[in-house]
Amino acid sequence: MHPITRRGFGKGLSLGAGGLLLSPLVSRLESEAAGLSQGQPRFVFLVEGNGLWPHHIQPEGIPLHRDRIDGKGQPTNAAPELEDISLSAGNHELPPSLQPLRKYRDRLTVIQGLSGRVCGGGHSNEYGGLGCYPRNGGPRAETIDSAISQSIPAIFRHLALGISRDMRSDIIYDCSAAGPNQKTPIYTNPALAYDMLFGKVLRGNPQGEALTQKHLLNFMVDDVKRLESHFAGPEREKLQQYWRAFESIAQRQSRLGDVDPKQIDPMTNLYQSAVESDRLDAHFQTVAMAFATGMTNVATLASGVGQHHFEITFKGLGINANKHHIGHLQVDGANEMAIKIRQFHTQLIARLMDQLAAIPEGEGAMLDNTLIVYLSENAGAHHSSCYEWPVVMLGNLGGRLAAGDRYLCFPQYGKPGHRTMANLYTTFLHAVGDQRERFGMKDPGLEGVLNQDGPLAELLA
Q: Which superkingdom does the taxonomy of this entry point to (predicted)?
């Protein structure tokens, strides 16, 4: 990937049809170049299906407090009080699953003890995992990745890529949503995703196409308004969704002419591979280029996520058992297989961090302003009860978060000081300027017991 200098981005920039749309972005970049603001925040959500087991991310030398909350179910977090531990001060080594991230230990934060009982649990919480609402019935509201993208817009407001056991579908829907019943398409075909992002820049005249689409958009405005008066309820909502989608495409097109094609690496054989690990590898490469070119500031990578997709088999890693059987510990060496799969994911994270560290931005690098969140949409187990939801974070968003070289474990469910995934997601929103006090739905089991509003004070800088 070619180096990109953000400093001076606005100098000599000729804005065409997308001038009005680009002006806020250019102003922010010019302020950053002048040292007047923090760099552009970026988020990556790496969502691994089938649960992220707490002991797989637990730093060595720090005990996991375990108990059965209801006296019968699976053991879960039982920390009596908040634990806040420096990894380096205690000389705590990372567990095997996180070893590929060892060079970035100063940017790494392990979070244990958060809950998400409102989601329900089972084999997959699907949209509820990133949305903090019950898993049944499809998306009830926006998910956190989509919510964040509204505060840090780019050409593509949100990029969602993933892998599935189903090779027949190029696009799936499983964990991300822009709003109620507005499922975010997740591209599982790396070549299709690459072409969707970079094809027009590499092939043709995106600004010319933008002018055509702008004229078409102007003609459509009156027609859409007239049609709205003839519809009510669900039909009118569908019409409005269609209009918003077309408008978004047209706006996106108007900004593609300012993307430098020299920053886009050519497609490799990975993008055409039928091997699941190759496809995920290619998706990570695409995210790196999308960040470098300014195509997006928020990316979601869904690795075998959702009720219909989690039974994926990582044959490319030499594993012949699917993740369902691994989750049930039904095969010999299941724990070791799960660790190997986690290591593959963290290797890809480490490589992405290397790539972002090589791209100058402001007084530092693009990595300085990026937060990578590694978690599962199904909390901490194959059959999840959502009493605990392990999370690994890399980065601090340019100092917006008090994160890095840190282990945080929140108290047991229902005890004073306990917090939820909704509080973590609210923290992310506050870090990008969205000051809402609540994200998602409240946990009925904690009503009247704990205050569920607000961000995690422990993580806000």
A: Bacteria
User: Nearest Cα to 87, choosing from 79, 76, 78, 95?
Assistant: 95
Compute φ and ψ for 286, nearest 5 degrees: -65, -40
pLDDT one digit per residue (tens) for the chain, 461 residues: 544 343 333 344 444 433 333 333 444 444 444 444 568 999 999 999 999 999 999 999 999 988 877 666 678 888 999 999 999 998 999 999 999 999 999 999 999 999 999 998 888 889 999 999 998 889 999 999 999 999 999 889 999 999 998 888 899 999 999 999 999 999 999 999 998 888 876 766 555 444 444 544 555 556 666 666 666 676 666 566 655 654 554 555 555 555 666 667 788 888 999 999 999 999 999 999 999 888 899 999 999 998 777 789 999 999 999 888 898 888 999 999 999 999 999 999 999 999 999 988 888 999 999 999 999 999 998 888 999 999 999 999 999 999 999 999 999 999 999 999 999 999 999 999 999 999 999 999 999 999 999 999 999 99
Residue 243 has a CB neighbour count (10 Å cut-off) of 18
In this structure, the strands spanning 370-375 and 42-48 are parallel
Distance of CA 69 to the CA centre of its chain: 30
The Cα 325–Cα 303 span in angstroms is: 16
Task: Note whether 314 and 157 are within 8 A (CB).
Answer: no
Indicate the pTM of the whole model: 0.83
CATH architecture of 38-195+271-446: 3-Layer(aba) Sandwich (3.40)
CB 166 within 8 A of CB 127: no
| Tokens describing residue 4 | 């990109």
Alpha-carbon span 364 to 349, nearest angstrom? 19
d(CA 97, CA 113): 19
DSSP 125-176: -THHHHH-S-STTS-SS--HHHHHHTTS--SSS-EEEEE-S-TT-SEE-SS-
Angle CA(43)–CA(250)–CA(209) in degrees, nearest 5?
A: 120
Among candidate residues 296, 286, 291, 295, the one with its CA nearest the CA of residue 206: 295
Q: Across 177-233, where does the E strand assignment appear?
A: 177-179, 182-183, 186-187
Neighbours of 29 (CB within 10 A): 23
Q: How far apart are CA 103 and CA 98, in angstroms?
A: 10
Tell me how long the chain is: 461
C-beta separation of 35 from 362 below 8 A? yes
DSSP helix/strand/coil, 301: strand
